[in-house]
């Protein structure tokens, strides 16, 4: 088991499209660990609260590290990524949260044409430490870091780094955090893992389009799972996670679609596949069981054109396992 | 403070449409408590696992108790309903969960026309007690009861009891449970509260269209809040509720719309109104704060044409309050 | 065959909700003709170009004449309404077109919550005659009148007059014009026909939320069709209607749903039912035939929460009929 | 002005992804004409009515000719393509129309997960000539050919050939037919034009997912329009096109989005831009004018994840032009 460094310098050019057309920056063995220096989603362009996104951002956003080639990963396999730690890096204030014109859940966007002027821009630069982020005298946001964008590569298409899709991408899924493991489908040899865009904190939904965006160093371990065929990302979370108070581990499936209902359907459908495969349940019974016991969350509603919904089922439901 | 009984007998005819055209069955003072005998959503028509929904269900579903007239409730007020207890009633097995042809999240429906045959029907009759519901030898579902349908009346329209809408209705929102308080907007004098359709357990989403449907006796206390103007239901929940593990009370706003994205927007928008009104935050700053700290859940995706999304914000975010 | 007048005076109170709870203003025999004096959708409140909608409009819009009770109409039948003429009435300028704050296709609305200020209001008052409407020195809009809102009543619910639904309502469908016949499903005895809201001209879509709104006198003949079971409005149009230039009569089915895709599916599905019932086609073949020969138009995208899509099939496709 | 042949042999490998990563097969001057031999969308794999799509189709569909490099085309320009003729080619029966499992408007799809079995497959092989296509003894479909898929290239992403997007692609837009001109936005030097997938006939909507798919030879002339900045495809059509019977030329704008409402908004928004730029109209007035005079059609609802809506405005509205 080797640990590989992927510093800014080694990465060189970061990527804004996720596909099979870039050369791998790293080739690793299954079980190896990577330490990756990520930029924030704005590639550091917002340095002060006077740097308005409309003025300082370039044509492309969300720079990605990678691709990382994982030996032995074949189409049809899954790559498992266990996040060990996410440390903030860079000079303070290294956290950025802001609105961006014509982005966000409560704004007209370039995909929902309207005649309104853009909303006023607001930028907050914040000191991020592992103790949390002081918002103002009254409010401190706990440090709950995760990887905002992580994916394997499609087979022949190449997808914008701002877009979540069936291989992962800009999912902004808070469960991709230290201690948890995410499974991504492999479609090209070696998987071609891209990652970046870490957040010091974010609510499920990321409703205004930015979290506390932060440059970081990620430590993660990658393995290959030939036995696992996932139609879209799935993950194990240490919990707690539900409104009903089960402070326990859970397994979750995701749906990544351009309509939240379709995303919910995909997530549930993948959970049914899992229940039927692992437990002695017919598909209709698994369906009804999900209705009474699985919980749906919206993880992200702002990374057009796709949104992320996850279905969670507590491990405690199966006490004998 | 009086306690009013609303037995099956006193209710007489249950209602399948929610509007101002029915006569109140009860007139109460603010602060009074009601004890209400509810039917299950199928009005008891599914008695055994051989009773297929396609054969035994009538034209109308989801019978409602009420309307209850609350003295002093005026248009523009909110009615606050604190649920004290929900007890299962009736002979065992009193719990019913099933699929219904052309209903549910993974089925063609009468609102999403397709050429597929209906899915096979499955009915499970379950013994429901306050100790939980035994699903099979391996799985027991905890007893986590809530009121599935609860609303005030629109001003001049009358809405199907199967539909959630801005005054509440068939929200299938698991947080409407003992210990919590829900706030509903008032649009007619006296509010005209309708309620029914209790569930012994349900995941957020209710993905196949039924929960563990159970006849119950609800005990709840109703008050009038002239100071509170809510555009759609809001609630206080004792928690825990979030994926990030804050086992604490929270305040939540809902969006009830025919598109999950619009529902999410409504929920967030209502939360911004609350933050701006209560805390020293501008609207843009409240928007960004929700992006980093509020969580979106899908409470229900099967009660066409409207779905329910809630935005939750932990009380602990404001430690000085 | 009798002709019945329904003047403003005879109508008395106009209706803003469409349901079974109002008393009929007219009882007629099948085959009778009605002459109906309609208000414009703003009930005449916008008298000059200085009357801003935000200032002069009341709580309710879109006043309806009716309900008209048609003897012999039973649940399961259709009522056929053949429009004979639509004449503008009232003092000039009697045409009104305008934007309304938080309504319209390119605006945030009260159902798609955003943080934008409302769009600027614009009001145009126009002289409407049967020769057309002069927009400015360069542009004259032909007089192509139709009934914007027309419906039967739901069984127990009561629906806002601003909403199109399966019984018709505010469909803003330009094909409901002189010479054409529309079929509406009956759900209560007598059908309870409501109508109003005529337009001197409108594009399919009605994208800003208003057409050339005009008070009129409608002459229409109503018959009962016990042989026709329509799930939503259908109509015969004298044509022309298609992009491919067939200037001929056509039959059309509609879908009225809160999602344009579901509306399109409903329209196509109803067309399949018709093709299977009338011609020697299997359902899959009818489906494929619609794919190569039926045309979809969006008739209305602004009358939230429902939109109208129609599927048109030229009569000439079946030359032997 | 040169005419360039692009035969099957010269094309060699056809493309299933549209992007900047393939080498041009042809470099032409603006004003040149191309003659292109296209495959049908199934690349000829469906030869008889016994060839079920589920059995004979490969992993990739919709083979594209190109890319064609147009000298002088720069990002920000438009490329204008005037279709001169589309001739069917290949042995009879060369027309194919069919259903494909988990594709189509009235079917569960791989993007709208459901639990239904796939619909039964139906394949029709049809003799296609310029006289039309005989469907059965009663029905003949007129020959109204058009190019189903036509696009320029995105800058850094690469898009599946089955997907319509802002540069065109699989729009299945019947107006891309002989006599009409389509304008596509340029994002890379030379434009990189891809095209293929011709249809002998199709209704607007293409509701079952296939038209009369036919191999053809296209003759088209390409020019560069540095003066024209189009956000998505636009076109001039010789008409007729509207339900109101104006048998005249029209200009149309398109919206290509994953939601039909967003597509409609984009189409209207682009039309407003055009009206404001060319005529003496304010934006609000152009908006209202579109509401009373522009028509919305759904051109395609089956090429997931994006749909196409066009807004048409008759040239006759501006008689002085």
Classify the helix fraction of chain A into a percent range. 10-25%
The helix-strand sequence of chain A is: EHEEEHEEEEEEEEEEEEEEEEHHEE
Q: What would the principal axes of the Cα set say about the shape of chain A?
A: globular
Cα-to-Cα separation, first versus last residue of chain A: 29 Å
Mean pLDDT of chain A: 94
Which structural category do the helix and sheet elements of chain A fall into?
mainly beta
Number of helices of chain A: 4
Oligomer status:
homotetramer
Widest β-sheet, arrangement of strands of chain A: 1-4-18-6-16-19-20-22-21
Rg of chain A, nearest Å: 19 Å
Give the largest chain-chain interface (CB within 8 Å). Answer: C-D, 71 and 72 residues
For the sheet with most strands of chain A, the description reads: 9 strands, mixed
